Every structure is written in C-alpha cells, then in structure tokens.
Amino acid sequence: MPVPPVPHVVLVIYYTYHVHFVLLCYSEIPNGISVPQVTMSSTREQKGWRTMYRFKAFQQPTLLQNHLNLGGANPSGERIDVTSLYFTRGGKPWIGVMGEFHFSRYNRNDWYEELCKMKAGGITLVSTYVFWIYHEEIEGEFDFAGDNDLRAFILECRRAGLDVVIRIGPWAHGECRNGGYPDWLLRKPFKLRENNPEYLEKVRVYFGKIYEQVQGLFYKDGGPIIAVQLDNELTNDAEHLAALKELAISCGMVAPLYTVTGWNAVAGAQIPVDEVVPVFGGYCDAPWDERTTQLPPSPHYFFTGMRNDTGIGADLLPARTEEDGEWQLPYERYPFATCELGGGLQSTHHRRYIVKGIDIYSLSLVKLGDGNNLIGYYVYHGGTNQIGKLSTFQESKATGYPNDYPILSYDYQTALSEYGEVREQYRMLNLLHLFVQDFQETFAPMVRVEAEHAVKRDDTSSLRYAMRTDGKSGFVFVNHYQRLAKLDDVRDVVIDTGIVTFPPIDVCGDVSFFLPFRMDLSGTVLEYATAQPICRQGDTYFFVQIPGIAAEYRLADGRSFAPEAGLASLVKAEHASIVTLTWEQALYLRRLDGELYIGEGCDLYKRDGEVRAVADGDFRIRRWNGVSFEQGFIRQPYAEPVVTFEDAAEPPFAPQHIEELHIGGERKITWQKITVKGSQGFVTIDYEGDTAQIYADGLLIADSFYYGEAWRVPARLLDGKACYLAVSEMRDDFYREF
C-alpha cells in the first residue's frame, strides 16, 4: 500500500491593506514548492500561486580573535585589528570601502580633486600600485618627482580624509609593462619572484626608496597608510611572500595590515598563514581570456559564497603541479575581503566591452550578500599610462605578455573615467557604500546564510537570493541580473527568513537589491521593509524605492505604512523618521563632510569646503536640514569648446607610435586635423575603426581601442594645439559587444 505523505506546515498569508493574518495549515506539499494562497484586497479576492523562498539553517561560526600576526595602533590609541569574520577599528566592527587609483597614471595637479570625487562616491580607502618601472626605469636612477611623487599623493589622500593602501609589489601586474618590472631587471642572470639573495637585495634597495617617500605617513605615526599589499597574484610561494613582508618591515614599512591576493585554483593561493590577509576579486568578464567569443555566464552574479575567482590573471598564473601538495587556504581564519572587484573592464585589443552600471553594482551587491567585509574595487578611477625614456609602459605581446593594451589609455570604463567623468556605477555603488558606513557595526558580524535551493549557472528562471543575519535580524539580498543574459520575471515572491516573512513582491527586469528585517531604527524595530536602506542622519533613516517594487514598511508593533517615494516622503515612527527616495534621487545622494545633499541631475563633491558639481554648468541641489531637503544652487560658468574636423592626407610630422595602429597586421589609416578653441568640457569623437590616436604638436596624447561608443577627450588637452586624429580600419578580429 502507498506510504501516506508527511504533513508539512505551510504559512498561508492573507493581506488586506497593511494588516496581515497568518494561518498555520497542514499541507502535503514540501518546502520550496508553490502553494495556493489567497490575497485579499479592498475590492476583490484574488487566487494565485506563490512560492515561499526559505533559507538553510543559521549557524554562528566561531569568532577567532588575536590569532593573526597583524594589527596595530595609532598615536591616539585607536587600533585596527582582524578577526576571522571582520575587521575592527577602535574596537568596533569596521568595513572599509577601497578604490584603486594610480597616482603615476594621473596628473598630480588633479590628484586632490579626483580624490574628493572618490570620497563623495563613498570610498574610504585609496589603494595604489607603486610600479617599479615608473620609479627606476634606468637602474640606479630613481624618480619620485612630478606625477611619480608618491609622498605628495599620500599627503593629498590625507588632505581629502582618505586612508591608503600601498601595493608595493615588487611585481604588480596592473597591465603595466613587465608587470611593473624595469627592463634592466629582466636582464639579470638570477631568477625573479623567489628567495634568492641577488633578487632580494634589489628588492631591498627598491623597498628602501619607497620607505624614504612614505616615512612618517603610516598609521602608527598618525598617518593614513593602514595597509601594505605584497606582490600580486603570486600563488605558489608562501615563503617568498613571508620574506617580502619581513623585508618591508625591516625597511620601515610597518602597518596594521599586510595583504596578498588569495586567488588561484579552488584551493587558493599558498600564503604565509597568519602573517597576511588574503584578498580576493571578481570581474564581470575576462579581458585576458584569449578567446574572441562570448564567454559563459559569470559566476559572480550568483550567491555562491565563493571568495576565490580562479579566472583572474589566468593568463599569467603558473600551472598547478604535484609539488604544490595538498594545500588548502584556511578561509575560516580570515574575513572575506576583496581588493579587485572590477570597477569596470579594460578592453584588450582582442576583447572589447560596453560596461553598464548594473554590471558592476550587481556584482558588488552579490559579494556583499555573500559576506564581503572589505569592499575593494580595481580600478575605481581610470588613468593614463606614462611614456618612459626607453619605452612605452603598457602591457603588450611585444614584451612577452599575452595581451595588447592601449599605449596610453587606462580608462577601464570604471566609476570615474580616465579623465574624471562620472559613470553610472559610481552613482549606484554609492548606495552600498553609504549603507556599510552607517550600519557596519551591526552588519559586519552578520554571516551569510544560503538559500534553501542553489541556482545553477545556466538557470535563468529561479530567484537568486541569500541572507546575512545574526540570527535575530538581518538583510535579504536578491540579484535579478546576469550580464548579457535575460532573466525571467519572478512574480509573487514571498521570502521567509525564519524570523520574518515578507509580503509578496514581483522581481522583474534588471534589478539587484536587499531588504531589511528586524532592523533597529534608534530603538524602533522595523519588522521589515520592501525598500532598500541607504543611510541615516541622526534619527532619520533614508531608504530607496526599488524599481518595480512598492515601498512598504511594517514595524514590530504591527503598524505599517506605504509612503509615496520622494523628497517629501518623511514618516515618523516612534523614535525614528523614515524618508523614502526614488531611485533617481538616491543615485545623486551624497554625504559631504557629514551633510546629505542631492544633486538634480548633477554629481556633487566637496573640495576645500566648497560643494561643487563634477560637470560645469548651473544646477539645482538639495541639502537635508534635519527636517526636509532645502533647495540651493550651484553655478559653475561653462563655455562649450568650438571644435572643427577636416580631412588630412597625412600629418606634417612622423608619428612616434604608429605601430599601435597596425596591431594584428598592417591597416589602412585615415587622418583628420582637429582644431579646438576653448579649454572647458570635452571633445566628442564619434569614430568607427580599430584604434584611434590623437597627436598634439607632434606628441601622442590620447588613444583608444574602439568599443562601440563615442570617445570623449578633454578639450584642455587639445586647445590651441596642432592636433591630428588617426583612425585605423576595423576588422573582424576581436570580440565585441556592439
């Protein structure tokens, strides 16, 4: 005879306005399967199917403290330390937001302004490579002047109120020539990146020169340098990484934190356990992949808990051998920390991308939901390579590396462009940055809990979700976006955290978001909200309405409300007030020196006490005065440059770097003369071709691999100069997204 089904308890939830009635019913349907439910409204009764989305059991891991040879104090007694789950600062859980910006790839006159933009975007830590070839291109001749002035850059970081991570190599990569090694070093008769005395002596001299620049600027001195990264993508030599740490310390570079990149195979990079923190990354595609076809869906849009991206740098990582043994990186000893969440993608000659803001926002949100407690972007700000005395400084196949990159442009299609323009991800990522800065003390200790059922990589119809919780409260993360793919809409989603059950929502279109439950609002408990928290200002809490989802709030005492999003949406709830912004308003929300502003279609930052807009012109702004947003204005005079193009047979000079126009074989080149009058704004060059170069007064000043969008070059680079544009013909020899 058949075995009778085992009863399961199923929550059937009836909704009428904002009052919820919960009935316990017996069902023969197991968890995760749709159950019939009834929705009550003021006008009619609707019947339909809803799926309960649940989670695996919460387990609080053991918190390890004081177990690493890391940490340190500043002169005021504040300490930075590392537990197995999160970092602490001043004894409290702390989440840094780190953005990579290469000082030697930017004009020093603009460092401070760009750092202020980064701070306005929610960055609290600036990481920067110190490329050896930039500072000792010729053996024994050190250059820390001009745009190579490391000390001046760190002082500008301190002036902007930003901490610093110096990535000192000695090998860096960063799409730099030889990975940053000077050519002369490659000609030495000894092996590099291992513990031999000859190599370590060269490194000791180089580290000593770096220390001369940064002396007195470490955290222990009251300075902004809180961390040092050793080498990069060294995956199979823990002893060498340990030697580099000892060498850095012996040269005077003493910091609370020492980091190394932790990616390699699934087992992770071999690192000196307890001496460093392994940091990880994730990119929305792989510019280094040798293929010229679309790649499989990126795993970084799934909540997998994966720290280690085995694909990063796969073009350069050594193959795993039997000598590597049974190594397994002990992840449980370290917090989940990242240094290379791709802020964009740097196009190679054979792979060219169009990066959207949500490509980057969704990826970062997924990592946050997966437990990331140090948010690090590579790169957050683009730049321009220098040209050395002996060679150009970009990675290329001509130097034995697997990819060809532009000679000059390191734009990366990232949050802040090569020339300081704002891209969409700058605005979107700031929503995450504001949140972690204001709620890090409660959020950082929360651990990741998996969804009840995993989503496979080829699944475009199932809901992707995860949770971070302390067992009493938390946040549910949902990602409904996959780059270059369309996900099916998921309707009537009811999420059950085991503590709180959310009302049904429809998850449609390209959206990524997180929802709070049992959230403390200055003593008032928010049972749940179907809006995303952003930040707080005193006892006022700011949320954003998620596209396609009505904002509904329910307090623990049973009261609920559903305000219309907007600047005047303030609702008082006992000890707290709640403001719900529209998505567009939230994208322009900035905290500048402790005050909240919203720009109306403009990106605001603060420089030397003055609120400014990134783009020149006249703009309306709003400032939160504690009760409402009061109106103000910014006026930055702007004169559009006058630009003319005329065909030219050839330039009246011999181009210095014509080989870039012929990568992959000789190509036809067309020339135009550009005349620019006016130094404000940008010159838009809407060309089609393989590669473009601009020469001003005979010197190469800008270049671009065409990727389907117009090229924007600052007018100030061209104003009043004899400028020529060269464009080489395009062939079907690269991956493209246009």
TrEMBL record:
SUPFAM superfamilies: (Trans)glycosidases. GO terms for biological process: carbohydrate metabolic process. GO terms for molecular function: hydrolase activity, hydrolyzing O-glycosyl compounds. Coiled coil: none annotated. Residues 87-433 form the Glycoside hydrolase 35 catalytic domain. InterPro entries: GH, Gly_Hdrlase_35_cat, Glycoside_Hdrlase_35. Pfam families: Glyco_hydro_35. It comes from the Bacteria. Belongs to the glycosyl hydrolase 35 family. This is Glycoside hydrolase 35 catalytic domain-containing protein. It comes from Paenibacillus nanensis.
